[in-house]
Amino acid sequence: FSGPFTDVVTTNLKLRNPSDRKVCFKVKTTAPRRYCVRPNSGIIDPGSSVIVSVMLQPFDYDPNEKSKHKFMVQTTYAPPNITDMEAVWKEAKPDELMDSKLRCVFEMPNENDKLNDIDASKSAPVLNTSKQDGPMPKPHSVSLNDTETRKLVEECKRLQAEIMKLTDENRHLRDEGLRLRKIAHPDKSGSPTALALRDNGSNSLPSLLVVIAAIFIGFFLGKFIL
């Protein structure tokens, strides 16, 4: 019997009568509660055969437990004008009985069989597949691989760091310029014209730096999106 044994497992026995007389048969087992045998008895005509189905009921299989289940097939020549099968077996003499003994063997499918089944299912051809006329449509966009994406992200981070650095340097230069102007023109430092000049001169440099940084970021972000 081949597992798994979570459902009924059926094995067939073929009984053949090679003689020129009718033969009565009976199938017995040492574990009648575990098996269902159909037919468990009957008559076989000369030169004919019969199939006996042995159905093992579901159970929890233990590979360490050795099977002690056995079957025995008893046969005897059928008397003429037989009417009662039970009487045949009761009246049969020991020297008129023939028997064959069979031992049950339980087998579980191994991992190699499972792998072979999986490989066979993968390699099986697919039938009734429809063909597409013409070339395959091209995708609208092609995604970048991980390496290119990582490079672009690192480049954007570097540019942002450069912007912050230039902003700090510009602030420092602006403060230094204001300090020098105060030292050079202490009397005119508070006039509106001087204040306007200082504001225009100090704001022109950061605006230029922001424009340059925006151009670089726009270039790399455009490359990343494309």
Strand order of the largest sheet: 4-2-6-7
So, CATH architecture of the domain at 9-103?
Answer: Sandwich
How large a portion of the residues is in β-strands, by DSSP E? 15-25%
State the CATH superfamily name of the domain at 9-103.
Immunoglobulins
What is the subunit arrangement here? single chain
- Do you know the CATH topology of the domain at 9-103? Immunoglobulin-like
Query: What's the order of the H and E elements?
Result: EEEEEEHEHHH
Low-confidence stretches: 118-134, 137-142
Instruction: Tell me the structural class.
Output: alpha+beta
Distance between the termini: 63 Å
Count of helical segments? 4
Radius of gyration equals 48 Å
What's the count of strands? 7
- Class of the domain at 9-103 in CATH? Mainly Beta
Domain MSP: 1-107
Transmembrane segments: 205-225
GO molecular function: FFAT motif binding
Membrane topology: Single-pass type IV membrane protein
Compact summary:
With 226 residues, this protein is an alpha+beta fold. Helix content is 41%, strand content 20%.
Blueprint of the fold:
Elements: E1 9-16, E2 23-29, E3 35-38, E4 41-44, E5 49-56, E6 70-77, H1 85-91, E7 98-103, H2 111-123, H3 146-184, H4 192-225
Antiparallel strand pairs: 1-5, 2-4, 2-6, 3-5, 6-7
Helix pairs in contact: 3-4
Write out key terms for the chains shown.
41% helix, Vesicle-associated membrane protein-associated protein A, three-stranded antiparallel beta sheet, MSP_dom, 20% strand, Ig-like_fold, endoplasmic reticulum, four-stranded antiparallel beta sheet, Immunoglobulin-like, alpha+beta
